[in-house]
């Protein structure tokens, strides 16, 4: 479920995507962002996952963000204590401790 801080309302942010499966047939999937946070004129899309140990897991977690057509910040939070880094698509990957304790974590 996704949270939108506007007026205390909870808003689901779902994205329908169409993918081509292994037999070259189009399939429709609905993906959901874990959290959507609004702060004045800024918006942050946040996915939370245990880790990104495999390329497949990284693709799974970034797929929705790639299909959101706006320039707002997209963040993946992982359990591991890692140095923050950006994916090729500009998505911030950050550890939970850094995210919670660094007051500038949204601006990395």
Structure summary:
This protein has 108 residues and is of the alpha/beta class. It has two helices and seven strands.
Q: Could you please describe the fold and organization of this structure?
A:
The protein is α/β, with parallel strands linked by helices. It has a domain at 34-107. The protein contains 2 helices and 7 strands; from the N terminus they run E-E-E-E-H-E-E-E-H. The chain has helices at residues 55-66, 96-101; strands at 14-20, 26-32, 35-39, 42-49, 73-78, 85-86, 92-95. The strands form 2 sheets. A 5-stranded mixed beta sheet has the order 3-4-5-7-6. A hairpin with a 5-residue loop joins strand 6 (85-86) and strand 7 (92-95). The longest helix is centred in the middle third of the chain and has 12 residues, at 55-66. The radius of gyration is 15 Å and the shape is globular. The two termini are 25 Å apart.
Give the SSE map.
Elements: E1 14-20, E2 26-32, E3 35-39, E4 42-49, H1 55-66, E5 73-78, E6 85-86, E7 92-95, H2 96-101
Parallel strand pairs: 4-5, 5-7
Antiparallel strand pairs: 1-2, 3-4, 6-7
Descriptive keywords:
five-stranded mixed β-sheet; single chain; two-stranded antiparallel ribbon; 108 residues; disordered N terminus; alpha/beta
């Amino acid at each position: 479920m996704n949270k939108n801080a506007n007026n205390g309302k909870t808003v689901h942010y779902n994205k329908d995507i169409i993918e081509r499966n292994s037999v070259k047939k189009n399939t429709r999937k609905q993906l959901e962002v874990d959290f959507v946070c609004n702060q004045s004129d800024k918006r942050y899309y946040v996915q939370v996952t245990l880790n990104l140990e495999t390329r497949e897991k990284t693709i799974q977690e970034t797929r929705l963000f790639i299909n959101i057509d706006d320039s707002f910040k997209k963040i993946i939070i992982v359990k591991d204590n890692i140095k923050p880094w950006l994916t090729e698509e500009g998505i911030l990957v950050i550890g939970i401790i850094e995210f919670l304790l660094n007051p500038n974590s949204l601006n990395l």
